[in-house]
């Protein structure tokens, strides 16, 4: 039977187009059940003996989940015990439109033969297709279509000329309205997760802990209603609402910022303060925000306020929040302030964390505390909280009702015991979305066969530079060496200087599995004691590593310079080099851990100073990146992969200028050069560490450097390097952006052929966005790894006394930097274990008066350092003030005996 569907569509020019589509209905679509003799089907999917071991459904049954059940409980449907499930076409289409990751997981389940999941095309079956009624929403129509298909299945199996007696069809839904209408139609319906909770025999005991929490509510409305999408869109169009990305604060759970991207470089940040104004938004959600009247604008809080993770009464918590906001309210209305009126797109994912067991005996309602402090606690229900005690687990959010202090969610899986190194490393990788799975066989299949050697055919296309003295300069133990240098005097008296970079693009060809995997990973991630490679180890540590005394393929940038270091000529070539050994040991400002070879625990921690050789190498690498950037932009102005560093807004420098002024030092921020010159000359007699502290503050003022496609932007300037154009060319082993730049340069010098994606500015721009995201996440993961190993280092050392400097001043605390360890910590003055001292905060200074002592930036202090492991998930480095001595505030200096060093073992 042929039906026609007619609808109108608005065109780009503002007109209206009438569209008629043919919709075919059939009566020969199989039901998929092997008990059915009526349908003509060769191989049925749904089994005759269809009975999962459930306390609720002791009879044979098929399950039909609605869309929300699939979206929110996909992990349950993946359990091996769940079988004989009918996935309706209506549900499949909705899931596809609403969540690509869940859709992929659902398709994978359907393809597993042992799961017996059957897709029924109800939208094309004559008896199950329904038209949308006048005034009926698309969602209500789809719910009705699911009920109609469920009823058809029930009747179809009953009337079948077979032994279907006793076989029932169960509709799974968490929607109360859908449940009520299904029961009115005499359908068998259950709340999905309550049904799953009653399952016996699941292979994973943790999966049985999942319980629906949609019913966990209170009668009190805590949050404003979210506006419907139609009103949000109209408001954005009229300008009464703004659309932006919600970014929760790490330090203050009552505060967030909505980043609103404008035209070109214009962007706005809207401050959100208070529980009701935050209105159930979760970090990284896309939200609609309404600006408050200007007389209600406030400044960001200077209070360090953290959600401690203890389960409290909602009313008591609200009182604390109101008090905190009164404390943090600023007199100066310095930032646009608003409130969340609706959610445009949720960015929820499974979150790592730990269960906060209820203090009420035999309670099934518990709070889950995410590891990421920007994520709110999540209420889940489980009868086996003792099993989860001390475990790192993953929990997904199901929803956030307006009368619930916390979102509701369900358990996903366990990661292992909290505190164990492997578990904590897995957590930080998951939390920072770092792809860390082993390389697949599809990826490894594109590696060159071993033994590998450069062939005569390779030499034909390359310049032979094996006769040059080429040196790599890297720290001891480095295996992914991707850059080397040479310098020689030419016959005309000029100097030839060359930068030689590993030719990774020779081995990774566009579009194959290895290339796609590298593009997705984006960067190599360096953790303490572990490296997660962007490319397989055969390339990163062998064939592409410019190791000494072996022939390697390279991409070379070579300059001819005069005795004033002025560049006379620049050329690029694919080459073959043979690097020589150089006895150079380099250091960096990063914290370095000395790891015990047996326990893999950190046994020493230190920072090291830069050597002049670092600067030499860095200068030539920067020059190579600038030279290549100009070349690829000249050749491909629309699709060059470049890197820019925006100039900070003047307000970013406020803290730097105030800090310098406190020591009578003047800093100029008109340009990057002016800032650099000012920092070079910033000195205070008797305070040798002043310049380092000032540079740390200057770094905090900077914006994030980002990759971009030249055809999608107009501002190329790199502020930090004071260069009009810049890119990344010098580290293709560990950065995918460099591989793209190598390909562009190879095409520019006719050393390789192009391909469509390379010349597509939209695809290049999308790639740049992913690279920016991966780079940012890798930085966060590295910092988290350092923080965890720092905690391990201090765990067995009791309380240490160290000198430090005040880096920032807050309303209730000072942030102290310990130069010896490169460690920052917070000294709180309003701790709960003692009476709060008299605190007076002056924002202009900024200064904090504690009793009779004034704290300013750069003040030298002495503190105790210890590990607070009372909260196993959020273990912290605690600092307490020793000097200056403030009665009732400072702590006495503990006796600290130097620990005997372990004897070195001969190995």
Summarize the structure.
The protein is of the alpha+beta class.
Description:
Strands 18, 19, 20, 21, 24 and 25 form a 6-stranded mixed beta sheet that branches. Helices cover 26% and strands 25% of the residues. A hairpin with a 7-residue loop joins strand 36 (860-868) and strand 37. Mean pLDDT is 84; it is low at 194-198, 200-217, 306-319, 326-333, 584-589 and 898-907. The protein has 5 domains: 2-203, 5'-nuclease (Rossmann fold, 3-Layer(aba) Sandwich); 229-345, OB fold (Dihydrolipoamide Acetyltransferase, E2P) (Beta Barrel), CATH 2.40.50; 351-431, OB fold (Dihydrolipoamide Acetyltransferase, E2P) (Beta Barrel), CATH 2.40.50; 441-643 and 714-778, no CATH class; 797-883, OB fold (Dihydrolipoamide Acetyltransferase, E2P). The chain is of the alpha+beta class.
């Amino acid at each position: 039977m042929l039906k026609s569907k007619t609808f109108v569509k608005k065109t780009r020019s503002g007109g209206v187009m009438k569209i008629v589509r043919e919709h075919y209905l059939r009566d020969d679509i199989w039901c998929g059940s092997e008990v059915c003799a009526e349908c003509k089907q060769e191989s049925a999917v749904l089994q005759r003996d269809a009975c999962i071991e459930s306390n609720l459904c002791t009879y044979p049954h098929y399950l039909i989940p609605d869309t929300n059940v699939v979206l929110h409980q996909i992990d349950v449907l993946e359990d091996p015990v769940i079988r004989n499930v009918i996935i309706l076409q209506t549900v499949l289409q909705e899931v596809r439109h609403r969540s690509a990751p869940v859709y992929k997981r659902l398709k994978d389940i359907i393809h597993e033969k042992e799961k017996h999941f059957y897709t029924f095309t109800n939208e094309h079956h004559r008896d199950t297709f329904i038209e949308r009624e006048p005034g009926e929403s698309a969602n209500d129509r789809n719910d009705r279509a699911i009920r109609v298909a469920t009823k058809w299945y029930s009747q179809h199996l009953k009337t079948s000329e077979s032994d279907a007696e006793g076989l029932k069809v169960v509709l799974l839904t968490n929607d109360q309205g859908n449940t009520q209408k299904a029961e009115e139609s005499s359908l068998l319906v259950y709340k999905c997760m309550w049904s799953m909770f009653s399952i016996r025999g699941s292979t994973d005991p943790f999966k049985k802990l999942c319980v629906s929490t949609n019913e966990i509510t209170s009668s009190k409305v805590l949050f404003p209603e979210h506006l419907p999408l139609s009103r949000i869109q109209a408001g954005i169009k009229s300008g009464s609402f703004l659309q932006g990305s919600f970014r929760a604060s790490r330090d203050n759970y009552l505060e967030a910022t909505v980043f609103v991207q404008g035209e070109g470089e214009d962007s706005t940040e809207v401050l959100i303060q208070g529980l009701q104004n935050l209105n159930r938004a979760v970090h990284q959600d896309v939200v609609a925000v309404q600006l408050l009247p200007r007389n209600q604008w406030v400044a960001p809080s200077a209070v360090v306020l953290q959600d401690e993770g203890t389960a409290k009464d909602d009313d008591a918590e609200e009182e604390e929040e109101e008090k905190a906001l009164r404390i943090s309210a600023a007199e100066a209305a310095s930032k646009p302030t608003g409130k969340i009126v609706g959610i445009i797109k949720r960015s929820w994912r499974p979150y790592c964390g730990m269960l906060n067991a209820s203090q009420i005996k035999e309670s099934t309602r518990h709070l889950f505390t995410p590891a990421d402090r920007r994520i709110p606690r999540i209420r889940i229900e489980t009868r086996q909280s003792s099993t989860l005690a001390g475990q790192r687990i993953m929990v997904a959010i199901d929803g956030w009702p307006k009368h619930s202090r916390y979102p509701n969610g369900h358990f996903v899986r366990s990661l292992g015991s909290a505190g164990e190194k492997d578990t904590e490393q897995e957590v930080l990788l998951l939390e920072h979305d770092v792809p860390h799975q082993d390389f697949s066989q599809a990826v490894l299949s594109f590696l060159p066969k071993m033994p590998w050697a450069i062939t005569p055919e390779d030499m034909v296309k390359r310049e032979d530079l094996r006769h040059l003295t080429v040196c790599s300069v890297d720290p001891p133990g480095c295996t992914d060496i991707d850059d080397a240098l040479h310098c020689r005097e030419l016959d005309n008296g000029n100097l030839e200087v060359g930068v030689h970079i590993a030719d990774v693009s020779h081995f990774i060809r566009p579009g194959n599995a290895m290339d796609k995997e590298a593009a997705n990973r984006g960067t190599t991630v360096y953790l303490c004691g572990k490296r997660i490679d962007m490319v397989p180890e055969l390339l990163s540590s062998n064939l592409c590593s410019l190791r000494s005394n072996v022939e390697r393929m390279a991409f070379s940038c070579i300059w001819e310079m005069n005795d004033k270091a002025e560049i006379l000529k620049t050329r690029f070539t694919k080459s073959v080099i043979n690097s020589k050994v150089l006895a150079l040991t380099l250091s960096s400002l990063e914290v370095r851990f000395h790891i015990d070879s047996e326990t893999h625990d950190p046994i020493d921690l230190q920072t090291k100073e830069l050597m002049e050789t670092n600067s030499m190498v860095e200068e030539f690498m920067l020059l190579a990146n600038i030279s290549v950037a100009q070349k690829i932009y000249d050749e491909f102005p629309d699709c060059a992969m470049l890197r820019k560093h925006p100039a900070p807004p003047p307000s970013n420098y406020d803290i730097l200028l105030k800090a310098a002024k406190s020591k009578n030092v003047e800093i100029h921020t008109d340009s990057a050069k002016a800032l650099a010159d000012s920092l070079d000359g910033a000195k205070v007699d008797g305070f040798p560490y002043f310049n380092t502290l000032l540079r740390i503050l200057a770094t905090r003022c900077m914006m994030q450097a980002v990759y971009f496609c030249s055809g999608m932007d107009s501002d190329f300037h790199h502020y930090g390097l004071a260069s009009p154009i810049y890119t990344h060319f010098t580290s293709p082993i560990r950065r995918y952006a460099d591989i793209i730049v190598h390909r562009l340069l190879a095409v520019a010098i006719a050393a390789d052929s192009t391909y469509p994606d390379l010349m597509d500015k939209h695809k290049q721009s999308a790639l740049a966005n992913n690279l920016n995201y991966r780079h940012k996440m890798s930085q966060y993961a590295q910092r988290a790894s350092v923080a965890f190993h720092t905690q391990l280092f201090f765990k067995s050392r009791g309380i240490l006394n160290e000198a430090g400097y005040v880096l920032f001043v807050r309303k209730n605390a000072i942030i102290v930097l310990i130069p010896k360890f490169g460690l920052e910590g917070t000294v709180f003055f309003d701790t709960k274990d003692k009476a709060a001292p008299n605190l007076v905060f002056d924002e202009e200074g900024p200064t904090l008066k504690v009793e009779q002592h004034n704290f300013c930036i750069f003040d030298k202090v002495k503190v105790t350092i210890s590990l607070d492991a009372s909260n196993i998930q959020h273990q912290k480095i605690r600092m307490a003030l020793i000097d200056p001595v403030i009665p009732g505030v400072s702590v006495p200096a503990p006796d600290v005996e130097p620990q005997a060093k372990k004897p070195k073992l001969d190995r």
